[in-house]
Write a structure and sequence with these properties.
The complex is a heterodimer of chains A (807) and B (106). Chain A is of the alpha/beta class and 807 residues long. Helices cover 34% and strands 21% of the residues of chain A. In chain A, strand 21 and strand 22 form a beta hairpin. Chain B is built from no helices and nine strands. The relative contact order of chain B is 0.24. Chain B is mainly beta and 106 residues long. The chains are: A alpha/beta (807), B mainly beta (106). At the A-B interface, helix 3, helix 13, helix 19, helix 28 and strand 37 of A face strand 1, strand 2 and strand 5 of B. Strand 37 of chain A pairs parallel with strand 2 of chain B, so a sheet runs across the interface. The structure holds flavin-adenine dinucleotide, iron/sulfur cluster and FE2/S2 (inorganic) cluster (FES). The site of flavin-adenine dinucleotide (FAD) has 35 residues of chain A, from helix 1, strand 2, helix 2, helix 5 and helix 8.
């Protein structure tokens, strides 16, 4: 009979313990996990990155639902355990579910500490601990402007940076005169404050919150000195509090945390605690590195394998805010027993302080340059005697002839820890690199977990790659190519295509030494695009190098069905066409008929086999609602019907769409034409937009209405429709020739600079040449739906599903 | 319901497009055949191993790998394993080619 193992808490420390246990004893236990949050285990550390907009919730899931399933773990997500009956050896959940255990792990983590001041229960007051908090902040940022973060520590500053990225104004309120006073001394803290002020944070130091103002929702803060500030969102980041109530109520010995011995055992038999809820030798930890070490010891203990006791950990801290490179560990203050080495280079904004006690490093503070943090931290944790070293050799990496970090890596023992968070040693990494032929830091992470928590160790992993691969690494992995198959940048690829006269995708990959012979989903479509752009005169498109939507000329939906959106030039249609669309929708039982954002009609949920027949019945051209090409030209009704209209917006729109449809562009392109500045067609957020004014058209470029909202810039004002078409052609072609594949016009314009683009397009000769190349390109295209209907080979290759039956 | 494995003919070899998927429905279950550039034919279940599901028939094919059309997972056609850093596995089927006949075992 397998032993029953129950775990309360489905967080980082707990799940890591289970992972370690599964490695040691895959079939030893029947495992049940209760987790309060309705998610599988995710990387809580990365919530800061999610808030800052660099990652999505999806990206930070560490163990997806399948992981639990494939390891036979019963997970009750979104279910809280409310009672432990240690006599019956049973846990009881809020839903009344009772589960027996032989062994019980408590891994309940901690919660944000909410200041007990009047008003702290108002709407708009949140902690910063879980996905829910993060989602609340993101949601509120869309509606409100002013945020206050209480707490100038690690969490508070990361939250504040995130809120700035979300477009809010942020006040950071801190009780102490210095930020991060537990990790930084006065000098480093001052430097940090200056940098963050430059980034747009406002600091209110030595302020104690007395009350949170507002009716139902927060409207501001009042401090003990009587001053007030306005705030629509208050983030409490003043500390965390271990979740111990459940353990306490069940009669388990609790001090600040659940007290455990060196084997993570509580005072009750068969009950263990691990993670932020546990107190070991009077310390409750708040970083994952020590928690993962605890998890390892606990896993071995449960598996009955002899293990060293857990004896505590010294932690290093860094801040995950770009532009603030800092590291801190150990003692940061001075006393009679310490001497410290300090270097302060104000000009470069670098500060280093090494606190030394009894000839050993006792503390480290680095600001502005943290490349030596791993080496110094190792010296600290290994308690290396430094009496023979000069202060320069302590501060700068050892090794002669500027051996630097790589030399330092060579000197590392194989069993030395590289990734503290995940307990990965140098030896493990070197072996993984050799046996699996890894060449990038990400690949090492995929194989060993190293670098996949806080990311601090990534630079060291990169050094180990350099050291293990030698020259190979310097020339290959450090420089990022357009994808993992090459080290060549977009400009280099395009230059090689031109110089060597390469004419097809396979040849490009072959001649330029692609590491994966047939490329990947990133480079194949990109090369196909670049080839088509360079050889504008008659390039034969490679359909199988396009991604699904462009290959199929329809948008794939997640259930494998497709959508059909016919072209409707300028959003103008006829009663006859509408009838046809309606008939087709009925005939093929289309589940959803909807107007799209670009003034078209979309038929959604179509089976792939039905596509050609539907297109045939419709007899309309493809609306390219799926492509990296001209999507739609949205128009207002304009002078023909609107009393404000000064120009023929529908006319220009239709002409633009007819001229530029089907053109391959680096990314999708949308246009808008409004006949007066009331701008009903939203021309200000299009890749190119036209606004009718008395006697002409204003042309706006680089607008975007999507994720990264950007108002378009005025490029020029022209008198006639012909001029408008000519400038549009030149603009599109210049974008096509200079943008990277998948770069939209908004970031492209920011990169190139509006003035530069204006200058290019002001040059008449230049415009002429650009238009010539563009017109040649446009000659290449055929209507794809029509092609699929009339070409049997295409129909069979892409649109048929065979059926075989067996009895 | 089938309980034992059977081998069935699913397609003519020369009708399979090169470096593209061909979906075949067998008693309601869809399997995708990929004729890769070495000439070999591979077969996988038409279901993305991504936790949100999706289909694989229109995947981009590169050597012995395909890229899931919706979530861009890189999947080995050899053993169905999703490549790191993603995880997961899609069901694969044994394929045999006899002359011009492609058979799979289900
Ligand atoms: C924004 C942020 C940034 C961070 N940055 C870093 C960093 O850079 N480096 C670093 O090392 N650490 C960082 N941390 C800390 C790190 O995330 C934690 O130390 C770690 O997650 C703790 O793991 P745990 O398993 O103890 O607790 P948790 O991950 O919190 O997991 C505990 C789980 O138990 C659940 N639970 C609690 N009670 C019950 C119950 N009765 N029944 C069922 N379930 C229950 C909770 O809902 C929770 O999901 C950061 C934390 C945050 C919030
Ligand atoms: S943009 Fe001006 S002209 Fe066009 S519909 Fe609106 S108000 Fe009328
Ligand atoms: S040290 Fe945090 S991920 Fe490696």
């Amino acid at each position: 009979m397998k032993k029953k193992l129950v775990m309360i808490g489905n967080g980082m420390a707990g799940v890591r313990t289970i992972e370690e246990l599964l490695k040691l004893q895959p079939d030893g236990f029947e495992i049940t996990i209760f987790g309060n949050e309705p998610h599988p285990n995710y990387n809580r550390i990365m919530l800061s990155t999610v808030l800052q907009g660099d990652k999505s919730i999806e990206d930070i899931i560490m163990n997806d639902w399948d992981w639990y399933k494939s390891n036979d773990i019963q997970l009750f997500a979104g279910e809280e355990v409310v009672e432990i009956d240690k006599e019956k050896k049973q846990v009881i959940s809020e839903q009344g579910r009772k589960v027996d255990y032989d062994e019980l792990i408590i891994a309940t983590g901690s919660s944000s500490f909410i200041l007990p001041v009047p008003g702290s229960d108002k709407k708009g007051v949140v902690g910063f601990r879980d996905i829910h908090d993060c989602e609340m902040m993101i949601k509120d940022s869309r509606q409100y402007k002013k945020a206050a973060v209480i707490g100038g520590g690690l969490l508070g500053l990361e939250a504040a940076r995130g809120l700035l990225n979300l477009g809010m104004e942020v006040d950071v309120v801190h009780l102490m005169p210095h930020l991060m006073e537990r990790q930084l001394d006065g000098t480093a803290s001052g430097m940090l404050k200056k940098e963050l002020e430059n980034q747009g944070m406002n600091f209110l130091l030595e302020k104690q919150t007395a009350e949170i103002l507002g009716d139902e929702r927060v409207t501001g803060l009042r401090f003990t000195d009587g001053t007030e500030i306005r705030a629509d969102l208050v983030v409490m980041a003043v500390g965390i509090r271990p979740n111990v109530q459940l353990a306490k109520d069940s009669g388990i010995y609790v001090n600040r945390g659940i007290v455990v011995n060196d084997y993570m055992e509580t005072d009750v038999q068969n009950i263990y605690a691990v993670g932020e809820c546990a107190e070991h030798r009077e310390i409750v930890y708040g970083l994952v590195a020590p928690l993962y070490e605890q998890g390892k010891v606990l896993a071995a203990n449960l598996a009955g394998i002899p293990t060293n006791p857990y004896e505590g950990t010294i932690c290093g801290t860094q801040l995950k805010v770009s532009g603030c490179d800092l590291f801190s560990a150990g003692e940061i203050g001075d006393d009679e027993g310490t001497k410290s080495i300090k270097v302060h280079n104000e000009f470069d904004g670098i500060y280093k302080k090494i606190v030394i006690r009894d000839n050993r490093i006792a503390g480290i503070v680095l600001y502005g340059d943290t490349k030596d943090s791993n080496r110094l931290f190792r010296m600290l944790t290994k308690r290396e005697d430094i009496s023979g070293m000069t202060s320069v050799s302590i501060l700068e990496a050892s090794g002669c002839c500027g051996g630097g970090e790589a030399g330092d890596v060579a000197a590392m023992a194989d069993d030395e820890l590289v990734c503290g968070c995940n307990g990965v040693t140098k030896g493990t990494i070197v072996e993984a690199i050799r046996t699996n032929e890894l060449t990038t830091v990400d690949e090492v992470g995929g194989c060993t977990n190293a670098g996949r928590s806080c990311g601090r160790c990534k630079s060291l992993i990169s050094d180990i790659l350099a050291y293990t691969l030698g020259d190979q690494y310097d020339t290959t992995a450090k420089k990022a190519g357009i994808c993992g198959c090459t080290t060549l940048s977009k400009d280099e690829v395009v230059a090689e295509i031109r110089e060597k006269g390469l004419t097809n995708v396979r040849e490009v990959m072959n001649v330029l030494g692609w590491s994966q012979e047939e490329g990947c989903s990133k480079c194949r479509p990109a090369i196909n695009y670049y080839l088509g752009m360079v050889h504008y005169d008659g390039y034969k498109d490679e359909r199988d190098s396009r991604l699904v939507n462009e290959k199929m000329h329809a948008n794939i939906q997640k259930d494998g069905t497709y959508s059909v959106v016919p072209r409707m030039y300028g959003g103008v249609t006829t009663a006859a066409d509408l009838k046809k669309i309606a008939e087709v929708a009925e005939k093929y039982d289309v589940p959803l008929v909807k107007l799209t954002g670009g003034q078209r009609i979309g038929l959604f949920g179509v089976n792939k086999e039905d596509l050609p027949a539907m297109w045939e019945d419709l007899g309309m051209p493809s609306g390219y609602a799926y492509g990296k090409t001209l999507r739609t030209v949205k128009t207002c009704v304009g002078e023909k019907f609107c009393r404000f209209g000064t120009q023929d917006s529908m006319g220009l729109g239709i002409e633009l769409e007819k001229k530029f449809e089907r053109l391959d562009t680096p990314h999708k392109v949308k246009m808008g034409v409004s006949a007066c500045p009331r701008n009903c067609a939203e021309s200000g957020i299009k890749d190119i937009g036209f606004v009718g004014v008395d006697g002409g058209w204003e042309i706006y470029i680089g607008g975007n209405g999507g994720t990264d909202l950007r108002a378009a810039d005025l490029l020029d004002t022209v008198k006639t429709k012909e001029e408008a078409l000519e400038i549009t052609g030149a603009y599109l072609q210049y974008y096509r020739e200079t943008a990277a594949y998948l770069e939209r016009t908004a970031p492209w314009l920011e990169r190139m600079g509006l003035d530069h683009v204006k200058e290019v397009l002001a040059d008449e000769n230049m415009r002429k040449q650009l238009n010539e190349r563009l017109d040649k390109t446009l000659e290449r295209y055929n209507e794809p739906w029509n092609e699929a209907i009339s070409d049997r080979a295409i129909k069979e290759k892409y649109y048929q599903v065979r059926s075989v039956s067996v009895e | 319901m089938q309980t034992t494995k059977v081998r069935i003919k699913v397609a003519d070899y020369d009708s399979l497009p090169e470096r593209a998927g061909q979906a075949v429905t067998i008693n309601g279950q869809t399997i995708v055949l990929f004729r890769i550039s070495t000439g070999d034919v591979k077969a996988v279940e038409n279901r993305s191993p991504h936790r949100k599901g999706g289909t694989l028939a229109d995947a981009l094919v590169s050597g012995n790998f395909i890229y899931c059309p919706v979530y861009d997972l890189k999947i080995s056609l050899e053993d169905g394993k999703v490549q790191a850093p993603d995880t997961g596995e899609v069901k694969t089927y044994q394929v045999e080619v006899f002359g011009n006949e492609v058979h799979i075992t289900i």
